[in-house]
Amino acid sequence: MDKASLRREMRRRRRAVSRSESRQAGIRLASSLHSNPAFCRSPRVAVYLRNDGEIDTSHLIQRLRQRGVEVFLPVLHPLKKGHLAFIRYDNNTPMRRNCYGISEPDFRYGQKVPARFLSTICLPLVAFDESGNRIGMGGGYYDRTLAFCRRPGVRPRLIGCAYEFQKLPALPADGWDIPLSAIATNVRLRTVRNNPD
Ligand SMILES: Nc1ncnc2c1ncn2[C@@H]1O[C@H](COP(=O)(O)OP(=O)(O)OP(=O)(O)O)[C@@H](O)[C@H]1O
Ligand SMILES: [Mg+2]
């Protein structure tokens, strides 16, 4: 199946999960992530706010804040088209809705950090496979923003966050797709083989 058909089918399945099931799964997701020593050592972590049936991150965010971890959210970059910026997120962060209706920090007031200074980025996804291939919503936002991860040097760990049922055998991957370092679900965390993290 091509990316578009897989995306359609998996988004449908994802949206069929109830809010309370998503919240429960989100608690287990936070545990899977915290089973990873490198995640527990990350001082600056980017997450996302649940949209379109994605697994809930509210418990994860709460747990990170309690541990004193700096939390960031992606924002559609107003100047660099097709790219994301990352902005510090706490209880006082001014928020707005972007063109997709997703709540995001207001770029004008936010404290921005370049993606390469983040220790870990938790990415939402529509489907993943065990090799770290990821299908997102189809905007190419994460792929463009994280294209620098192909070059050698310091880079954030890229952890896909999903329900276990979003795992599929061997996904199609394009040249521009940036592979994940690991995938965390409501069941477990999988480190991608051949990945130094
Ligand atoms: N580094 C890049 N430079 C230019 N265009 C890119 C780049 N990465 C992706 N794109 C474009 O983005 C489009 C969508 O890519 P893709 O289908 O992989 O999205 P996705 O990974 O599902 O989306 P997202 O990253 O937003 O979750 C593609 O048509 C591709 O041309
Ligand atoms: Mg992609």
Topology:
Elements: H1 3-15, H2 19-34, H3 37-40, E1 44-46, H4 58-66, E2 70-76, E3 84-88, E4 95-97, E5 103-105, E6 112-113, E7 120-124, E8 127-128, E9 134-135, H5 141-145, E10 157-161, E11 182-184, E12 189-191
Parallel strand pairs: 1-2, 1-7, 7-10, 10-11
Antiparallel strand pairs: 2-3, 3-6, 4-5, 8-9, 11-12
Bound molecules: adenosine-5'-triphosphate and magnesium ion.
Cofactor: Mg(2+)
Family: Belongs to the 5-formyltetrahydrofolate cyclo-ligase family.
Region (Disordered): 1-23
Structure description:
This protein is 24% helix and 22% strand. It has 197 residues and is α/β, with parallel strands linked by helices. The protein has a single domain (3-191), classed as Rossmann fold (3-Layer(aba) Sandwich), CATH 3.40.50.10420. Helix 2 (19-34) packs parallel to helix 4 (58-66). The longest helix is centred in the first third of the chain and has 16 residues, at 19-34.
Could you say what the CATH topology is called?
Rossmann fold
Helices and strands: which structural class? Answer: alpha/beta
- Which stretches of 5+ consecutive residues score pLDDT under 50? none
Give the CATH architecture. Answer: 3-Layer(aba) Sandwich
Bound molecules: adenosine-5'-triphosphate, magnesium ion
What is the total number of structural domains? 1
Which H/E pattern describes the elements? HHHEHEEEEEEEEHEEE
Largest β-sheet summary: 8 strands, mixed
Which outline best applies? globular
CATH class: Alpha Beta
Radius of gyration of CA atoms, rounded to a whole number: 16 Å
CATH superfamily: NagB/RpiA/CoA transferase-like
User: Mean pLDDT across all residues, rounded?
Assistant: 96
End-to-end Cα distance, whole Å, is: 30 Å
How many individual β-strands?
12
Residues in helix, %: 10-25%
Q: Describe the strand arrangement of the main beta sheet, using strand numbers.
A: 6-3-2-1-7-10-11-12
Strand content: 15-25%
How many helices? The count is 5
Organism: Parathalassolituus penaei
Catalytic activity: (6S)-5-formyl-5,6,7,8-tetrahydrofolate + ATP = (6R)-5,10-methenyltetrahydrofolate + ADP + phosphate
GO molecular function: 5-formyltetrahydrofolate cyclo-ligase activity; ATP binding; metal ion binding
Cofactor: Mg(2+)
